[in-house]
Specification:
This protein is mainly α and about 90 residues long. The protein is about 80% helix and about 0% strand. It is globular and about 30 Å long. The model has no long low-confidence stretch (mean pLDDT about 90).
């Protein structure tokens, strides 16, 4: 729970590594309830900063989502991008 709080705080401030780690926590259900849509959104935000691991993670998670879930995940990623990229600039 502590790691989640610190990763989330750093991710919201623009840390691409923290965004990727947060995505991994949601993907694996490590310390949080497994949530592939949330995971995708954090991986996408991280990948926008050219973090190669996040780009690989996105490819993996896309194979685990239905078309509807993928659209939901992309919508959430866009929301996070607008919300957290503005804060980190």
């Amino acid at each position: 729970v502590k790691a989640l709080n610190w990763y989330k705080k750093a991710a919201e401030q623009g840390s691409k590594e923290a965004q990727n780690s947060l995505g991994a926590m949601y993907f694996e259900g490590n310390g949080v309830e497994k949530n592939l849509i949330e995971s995708y959104a954090w991986f996408a935000l991280s990948a926008s900063g050219d973090l190669d691991q996040a780009k690989l993670n996105l490819k993996v998670i896309e194979t685990n989502l239905s078309k509807e879930q993928l659209q939901q995940a992309k919508d959430k990623a866009k929301q996070y991008s607008e919300q957290y990229l503005v804060q980190s600039e």
